[in-house]
Amino acid sequence: MVDKKRNLVLLGHAQCGKTSLSESILSAFLATTRKGSITEGNTVSDYGQDEIAHKFSINSSLLNCKYKDYSLQIVDTPGYADFFGEVVSAVPAVDAAVLVVDAVSSVEVGTETAWGLLEKYNLARLVFINKVDKENASVTKVLEDLNSAFGKTFVLLDNLSSSTLIESVAETDDALLEKYLNTGSVEQGELIKALRKAVISGNLILVVAGSALQDKGIKELLEAIVGFLPDPSERPAVKGLNKNKEEKEVVLSEDAHLSGFVFKSIIDPFVGQLSIIRIFSGKLLPNSSFYNLNRSSSERIGAIYFLQGKGERSVDSASCGDIVAIAKLKDTATNDSIADNDQGLIFKAIEFPEPIISASLKPKSRADEEKISAALHKLTGEDHTLKISRDLETKEEIISGLGDLHLEIMVARLKNRFHVEVELGKPKIPYKETIKRVSKVQGKYKKQSGGRGQYGDVWLEVQPLATGGFEFVDKIFGGAIPKNYVPSVEKGVLQAMAQGVIAGYPVENIKVILVDGSYHPVDSSDMAFQIAGRMAFQKAIHEAAPVLMEPVMDVEICIPEDFLGQISGDVNSRRGKVMGMDSKGKLQIVKAQVPLAEMFKYANDLRSMTGGRGSFNMKFSHYEEVPSRIASTIITQHQQTQKQEET
């Protein structure tokens, strides 16, 4: 029965006790044989080798248990910002949430981030104030901080007869408020009904206080979950696009047509890929099939599982409200929508956070190089905040993620799961070279060593090209150079451009004019004119005021107003320019242009400066000349590298 189902996500700041709470819930209702401990590395949620080693959650985990005659499915999520993608994927798949807050630390950055995500999806929620047994714990202060931070009515669920609770509930219902003001009391049945309505609508947030480690407040929390959070048919509307691109609403019922969404994929070392699917409506049976609307194809399925951490239990059906796993699907991936047939709805894809930090990726051995592509493909299929790309200019493989810790964990997984070892480094900056004035020079290549010699002679003029790119113009008159050698001259120029002249970086924004030259009827050749063209170009660049150019990024930095001065000053210290300001609710948006060379560690620096409350994104804007002081250092380093290679 759908009204006896509850599914929810546990979320909050790192170390607030989400996993301990899930362990306490499972052990309290005999879903596990013994209560696990993060310290001992034996919790149901944190079962991964890297999670056990680090003693914190890295992946979201699925759990389930029975409470009275209710079926509960719980998604335990990480708290660290580096793994926020796991939270982002879990929230659209559930109907409600329990926001866990540390009774000592109170509202933290992760609390605010999680709250913002719940607001985005309009999910009903409860708050569990954890660690009330700790020294300096203060439930009162946490309640004050919650009210101040989020502007909602937070009410401690101590007992249903408290005047504070009754008054708060009455204020959400005009009829109930009038009755309460007239009689001074409310019947408990009316109160509970109004309270449930207020919680589901988000007009009131119930708070339970307790201690996961000491199993305090667990029963009260479970009572609040089944009593006041919505069942799958009461959740906020779920909308999708039909085959005609029209937005329609899902009928949230077991009797409706099948509709589901793949919100997560897990690469299991034993069974391969597990697709985690939220069923919004209808029913799905084992050994049947569904229609993948994104791929326009049918997919056969075998067994259907409920997950309990790394454990699994096969079920005889999945229906409205269930979160299930299906193994070894051939054509189905995260963000795919499933239905009975092509008449179903395609749901909006999860918007995962964009990577904010990058590193170059280099296999340690030839054997690692052969295995790395398949391993990275599996990792990115499981983690959509991990990006792999190849910089065509620097010829480097680039791995990008949400922080240093994120990349560190992924490198460890490459080694432990796939036996691939890699080295991370700072990505090379794709500098470019260009010129600032016109020059005209001769390049002559003449070689005689017995027999037929080599002869090529060209005059080139180089000019800055304001429109960008490269242009080669043939202005030879009177047959000074035969037409069949002109392409060879251009080929030599292009070779020199690719290798660079002053620091080894590609030359761009330049016009090259072939104005004169000479040839030998016997000794001239394609190769001789290639070499002559390369020599002339290199000489011409040196005489045309060559400069080094660097990529400049458009950067948008989102911060609380308190940090505005500090962030603006930091942008200037990075050779950046603040281009403007904007606001987004309580946050300020600083729009700036900053050289890419100054941005590689910005994610860590911004977190440090703002206590984790700042975020940013950036994209390429344009190239600018590198300041001479910095350019001379880059050129010197290039020259030293060349000397080392020659010796």
Could you please describe the fold and organization of this structure?
The protein has 16 helices and 33 strands. It has 647 residues and is of the alpha+beta class. The protein folds into five domains: 2-152 and 204-228, P-loop containing nucleotide triphosphate hydrolases (Rossmann fold); 239-345, Beta Barrel (Elongation Factor Tu (Ef-tu), domain 3); 357-425, 2-Layer Sandwich (Alpha-Beta Plaits); 433-544, 2-Layer Sandwich (Ribosomal Protein S5, domain 2); 549-629, Alpha-Beta Plaits. The strands form eight sheets. Strands 2-3-1-4-5-7-6 form a seven-stranded mixed beta sheet, sandwiched between helices. The chain has a six-stranded antiparallel beta sheet with strand order 14-13-19-10-11-18, covered by helices on one side. Strands 25, 30, 31, 32 and 33 form a five-stranded antiparallel beta sheet that branches. A hairpin with a 4-residue loop joins strand 22 and strand 23. Helix 10 crosses helix 11 (404-418) and helix 12 (486-499) packs across helix 13. The longest helix has 19 residues, at 628-646.
